[in-house]
């Protein structure tokens, strides 16, 4: 998309990617986002834990498919604002030749792309595509210019598909992209769930601010998106309990977000 046709950055309406950035301790947000973020914390104090754990899940999942399964191509759809230990940094830290395609259509995200891409390795490739995940066919077409779809690809949707209007739409988007990849590819996905009343209220309040609605979904719907794939142990579980690096503490309540990794047979 050309600069003259790119949507303007709205600073009068809170934006989920910027609020998420705020909850993770980032600086790429505006006052309206911080106000909405603080309101969210007041409703659901565990949201900052979810934000932190979402990044830890990304780190562990990318490291797993890169180091243990030999994946060298990553398609991170709805990547959001860069913070720390982004997909390309984790993957290229394992294998410097890794290729990463980020996909987003948020003007603020795209404005940060140049600085983020400066951190890629000389051996690898890291690019951004300006595209909307509601058009998965176009994403696949554009990604083919960078990634070799005759070789395995890790397809990633990290906490973004709650913005789809229905489960059926979420499933269509995921299936369209995964079907374009060969056997041996992986799906890495997490999304917010509806098992916490506080989190559901937080999302409803965010919608009332004028932001793009985010719909927490039942665990069963997130699991169903992995239909036809071979789930990696421990399956689709709360993201803080997917292959934790240290001893698992069973005392704290798991965060209201489920995720997993599945292999395409």
Automatic annotation (TrEMBL):
<dbReference type="InterPro" id="IPR006764">
    <property type="entry name" value="SAM_dep_MeTrfase_SAV2177_type"/>
</dbReference>
<dbReference type="Pfam" id="PF04672">
    <property type="entry name" value="Methyltransf_19"/>
</dbReference>
<feature type="compositionally biased region" description="Basic and acidic residues">
    <location>
        <begin position="241"/>
        <end position="252"/>
    </location>
</feature>
<dbReference type="InterPro" id="IPR029063">
    <property type="entry name" value="SAM-dependent_MTases_sf"/>
</dbReference>
<feature type="region of interest" description="Disordered">
    <location>
        <begin position="241"/>
        <end position="265"/>
    </location>
</feature>
<protein>
    <recommendedName>
        <fullName>S-adenosyl methyltransferase</fullName>
    </recommendedName>
</protein>
């Amino acid at each position: 998309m050309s600069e003259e046709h790119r949507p303007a950055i709205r600073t009068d309406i809170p934006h989920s990617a910027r609020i998420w950035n705020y909850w993770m301790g980032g600086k790429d947000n505006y006052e309206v986002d911080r106000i909405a973020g603080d309101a969210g914390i007041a409703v659901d104090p565990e949201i900052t834990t979810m934000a932190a754990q979402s990044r830890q899940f990304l780190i562990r999942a990318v490291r797993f498919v890169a180091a243990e399964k030999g994946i060298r191509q990553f398609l991170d759809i709805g990547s959001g604002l860069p913070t720390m230990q982004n997909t390309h940094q984790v993957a290229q830290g394992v294998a410097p030749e890794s290729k990463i395609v980020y996909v987003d259509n948020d003007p603020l995200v795209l404005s940060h792309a140049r600085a983020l891409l400066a951190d890629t390795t000389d051996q690898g490739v890291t690019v951004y595509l300006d595209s909307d995940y509601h058009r998965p066919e176009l994403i696949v077409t554009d990604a083919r210019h960078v990634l070799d779809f005759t070789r395995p690809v890790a397809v990633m949707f990290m906490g973004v598909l709650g913005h789809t209007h229905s489960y059926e739409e979420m499933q269509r988007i995921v299936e369209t992209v995964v079907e374009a990849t060969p056997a041996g590819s992986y799906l890495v996905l997490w999304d917010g769930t509806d098992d916490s009343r506080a989190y559901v209220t937080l999302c409803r309040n965010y919608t009332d601010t004028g932001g793009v609605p985010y719909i927490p979904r039942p665990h069963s719907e997130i699991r169903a998106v992995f239909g036809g794939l071979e789930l990696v142990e421990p399956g689709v579980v709360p993201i803080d309990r997917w292959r934790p690096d240290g001893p698992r503490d069973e005392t704290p309540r798991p965060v209201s977000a489920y995720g997993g990794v599945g292999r395409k047979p």
